[in-house]
Write a structure and sequence with these properties.
ornithine cyclodeaminase, domain 1; Rossmann fold; 8-stranded parallel β-sheet; 38% helix
């Protein structure tokens, strides 16, 4: 079984972004059989699986999620292919692939010169959001905000060692953090929107990866209603699990048929500009993509 440290060593973020991008292209092409995520105990236990027709390989991930535990996520990833099987710790796989999909979406939707990132949340997912955006855009400044001030400082201490050329700052509020951003990454467990749409610049790309239950919401309804485009990892998954998408569709602020899946968007990229949104609840094809890298490199 590959440990978390071994997973991290084997998958640099740029490679993860490339692998996840390819997986979403294959997903759009119908290469994956990907059942809906199984959720038990109000999201405290999750099971995800994907089978790739072209390779005959499958990945199955089981997770235990306890938001008041550190780490909040524990789990195992199993990769099975005609040539053998691999088992890996799922914590690093989950955070890396969640960062990677934000990297894919940012590369698709943010201006090429985007250099200012705001990150809301300082939990286990936050560092890989920074790593992923830094892999696709020339970041010069990162502003972070979290209700847990000490956690933000710890995160900045880690990131400064990795990115000495980037200026890291702490914002007093979420609205302050996003006010001058080119890219925003939300990685929280919030049940209400974490910033006001009016605080955003006119041209900004927003990634939201924290919420994965109908009761959770990170994004304001006004942003979803006014965004030039709202891209999701998978429409059916978001309509089951993404609280902000479910809410906006139910109130009529957002039309379900206006949602664009990431795999489709990659085949016909639009020009950047205005306010754009990417919402992800996580799909098994992402886990499959990283499991394949691990299998190839061990």
């Amino acid at each position: 079984m590959l440990t978390a440290a071994e997973v991290r060593k084997l998958i640099p973020m740029p490679d993860a972004v490339a692998a996840v991008r390819t997986a979403f292209t294959d997903l759009a092409a119908g290469e994956f059989t990907q059942p809906a995520r199984l959720s038990f105990g109000g999201g405290r236990a999750l099971v995800m699986s994907a089978y790739h027709a072209g390779s005959g390989a499958a990945a199955v991930k089981t997770l235990s999620v306890e938001l008041d535990r550190s780490p909040a996520i524990l789990g195992t990833l199993v990769w099975s292919s005609p040539s053998g099987q691999l088992v890996a710790d799922a914590i690093e796989v989950t955070t890396i692939r969640t960062g990677a999909v934000s990297g894919v979406a940012t590369d698709l939707l943010a201006p090429p010169t985007a250099s200012r990132l705001a990150v809301l949340g300082a939990g286990a997912q936050a560092a890989d959001q920074v790593r992923a955006v830094a892999a696709v855009r020339p970041l010069s400044a990162v502003t972070l905000h979290s209700r847990n001030a000490s956690r933000v400082l710890d995160l900045i201490s880690v990131l400064r060692q990795e990115f000495p050329a980037i200026e890291f700052m702490v914002a007093e509020s979420a609205n302050d953090a996003v006010s001058a951003a080119d890219v925003v990454c939300c990685a929280t467990s919030a049940s209400e929107p974490v910033f006001d749409a009016a605080s955003l610049p006119d041209n900004v790309h927003v990634n939201a990866i924290g919420s994965y239950l109908p009761s959770m919401r990170e994004l304001p309804e006004e942003l979803l209603a006014s965004a030039r485009v709202v891209v999701v990892d998978e429409v059916s998954a978001c309509m089951e699990e993404a609280g902000e998408i479910i809410h906006a569709v139910s109130t009529g602020s957002l039309a379900r048929d206006s949602l664009v899946e990431l795999g489709s968007a990659l085949s016909a990229p639009a020009s950047p500009g205005g306010r754009t949104v990417f919402k992800s609840v996580g799909v098994a094809a992402q886990d499959w993509a990283l499991a394949r890298l691990l299998a190839e490199r061990t």
